[in-house]
Every structure is written in C-alpha cells, then in structure tokens.
C-alpha cells in the first residue's frame, strides 16, 4: 500500500469546508459516508481516501473557474462589439413617440366597450383621466378602439310596430286614400308636440 507524503493531521481540509464546497461543485457522495467508515480504515487508508477526495474537489473547482472565465470573455467580447457599433455605453434611445396606454390599460378600454357598446369616446376619456391620471384626448381612445377592430357605426332605424299593427294601419290608410276633397274639408287636423320621456331619439353610434 502506498503512503502519502502528508501527515494525516496536516492535510488542508475540514468537514466545514467540504460542506461549503457542496454549493459550488459536485462533491462525491463518498464524502458524506467518510465519518462512518473512518473507524474501519487504517491510517494509510484514511490518508489515501482523504487525498482522493481533496484532489477531486480541487479539480472540479478548477473546471468551475475555467467556465466562469469563459463566460466573462464572451460577455466582454459582446460589449466590445456593441461599443464599436454605437460608440457609446449608454442605452440607445428608442425612436418614435412613447405610447400613451400600456397593454393592460388598452384591454381595460376594450372591455368597457364590450360591456356597453353605446359608450362614447368622451365618456371613456373621462374615466381614463380619473382612473389612470393621464391627460388624454378622445381621439386617442378612438385610435385604441380602431386598433382592436372596434369602429363607430350608426345603427339602422327600426320601427317599433308589430306585424298586427302594420296590417291595421295599412287597412286604415287604404280605406281613406280614395276619399274626395269634400271629405277632407270636414276633417280637423291638430298639430301635436313630441316629448321624449326616456333619453334622446337622436342618432347614436354603437
């Protein structure tokens, strides 16, 4: 059996240092079993075992340092190429005007229109000013809606007359359409004023 040139108690190792190395290198699983097998080994066997463990850990530490140096060289090379390209280490300014709304704010605007299709851009602008605390223009909100395929349209007017009332009205008109002029001279026509009780009947965009 070969003998180690170092004395057993002068070896540069400790159990605490081995535990610290576990986070950086792959420590052999035999290290955790050393405290249990040391009593069964002789003095020479313990020296050989500990020398092997220490050499293996040093080799792995050397590989780790080489990998770190390689990564640093690659990063340095990339920085040099970027510096030669723009001749500066500062962040390059982006072109164009910065966006007014973030993606989350745009989704909120689209959700409001999806909930109520009759919501106007002016009302949405007021909500955005109070919620996002930004100075906005209604046209900015319209641009966001157009971006998400929402366009303002005037709906077609639909007469609120049932089919039964349509037939009765048509029969009434046909009954008096051929009456002579003398008949209409005895008819009194009254002008009526129109009042809207619920909202306006003007054109509304949806």
From TrEMBL:
Domain (Transposase Tc1-like) ranges: 107-177
Molecular functions per Gene Ontology: DNA binding
One Pfam family per UniProt: HTH_Tnp_Tc3_2
Superkingdom per UniProt: Eukaryota
Gene3D superfamilies (UniProt xref): Ribonuclease H-like superfamily/Ribonuclease H
One of the GO BP terms on file: DNA integration
Protein's UniProt name: Transposase Tc1-like domain-containing protein
């Amino acid at each position: 059996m070969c003998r180690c040139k170092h004395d057993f108690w002068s070896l540069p190792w400790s159990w605490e240092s081995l535990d610290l190395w576990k986070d950086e290198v792959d420590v052999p699983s035999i290290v955790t079993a050393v405290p249990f097998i040391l009593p069964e080994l002789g003095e020479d066997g313990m020296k050989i075992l500990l020398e092997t463990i220490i050499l293996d850990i040093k080799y792995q530490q050397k590989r780790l340092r080489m990998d770190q140096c390689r990564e640093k060289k690659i990063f340095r090379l990339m920085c040099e190429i970027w510096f030669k390209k723009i001749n500066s280490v500062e962040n390059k300014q982006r072109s164009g005007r910065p966006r007014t709304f973030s993606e989350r704010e745009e989704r909120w605007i689209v959700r409001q229109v999806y909930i109520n299709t009759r919501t106007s851009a002016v009302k949405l602008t007021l909500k955005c000013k109070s919620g996002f605390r930004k100075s906005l223009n209604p046209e900015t909100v319209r641009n966001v809606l157009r971006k998400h395929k929402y366009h303002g349209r005037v709906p077609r007017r639909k007469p609120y007359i049932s089919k039964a009332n349509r037939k009765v009205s048509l029969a009434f008109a046909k009954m008096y359409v051929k009456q002579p002029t003398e008949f209409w001279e005895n008819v009194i026509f009254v002008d009526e004023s129109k009042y809207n009780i619920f909202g306006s009947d003007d054109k509304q965009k949806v």
